[in-house]
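Q: For a teaching session next week I want to show students how multiple molecules come together into a single three-dimensional assembly. I've collected the sequence lines for a complex. Could you give me the predicted C-alpha cells for the whole thing so I can convert them for display?
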Amino acid sequence: EDKVVQSPLSLVVHEGDTVTLNCSYEVTNFRSLLWYKQEKKAPTFLFMLTSSGIEKKSGRLSSILDKKELFSILNITATQTGDSAVYLCAVEASNNDMRFGAGTRLTVKP
Amino acid sequence: DAGITQSPRHKVTETGTPVTLRCHQTENHRYMYWYRQDPGHGLRLIHYSYGVKDTDKGEVSDGYSVSRSKTEDFLLTLESATSSQTSVYFCAISLQGDRSGYTFGSGTRLTVV
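A: Of course. Below is the structure for the complete assembly, covering every listed component.
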C-alpha cells in the first residue's frame, strides 16, 4: 500500500534556528511530491517537486527530492515565529491518487 | 479563502443522523475534492469530482456520498453519522486537476456524539 511518512512529528526551535523536515514515501508510479503549510485553517501550497536533485527555493524555504532513496526534505533557515505551522508532505501517483503524510508540527519560540 | 466557501464551519450532530456539508466555489474550477483530516493520518481523500455529475471515490469513501449538480457546488453527505466520522473536513478546488493548483477551503469541524 502506498504510504507517506513524515518526521519528526513535532519540533520546537528558537527563532533564528535552521530546521530540516523529512518526508519518505512508497508510492507506485510516482508523479510528484508536494509540500504544504497549514496554519490554523486551510493548507497552502509551498512546492511541487518532480525531478531528483533540483532544489526549489522560496525565500528562506527550500526543498529537494531524491527519487532514488524515495525522500524529500524541506529546509527553513533563520526561522521566525510566523513559520510555526504544520507542514504537510503529499505524494501524487500517475493515476491521480495523492497521499498525505501526517504532518510535522513546527513551533518556533521567540 | 477567496473563491471557496465551506458551510457550516462547525457542526455537532447525533449518531445515526444524516449530515450534509457544502462546498461552494466562485472560480469555475472543474475539479473539486473532499478530504478529512485526523490526527496521525494527515489529509485523506473521501470523494472528488471532475465535472458536473462526474464523481469518483477516494481512499476513505465508505459511509459518504457526494453530489455535484452544478459547477459551483459540491455536497458531501454522511448518510448515517458515526463517531468515527468526527473530523475536520476540507474541500479543495483545482482548475486542471494539478495538485499544485489546489485551493483549500477553511474547513468544517464535525463532531458526532
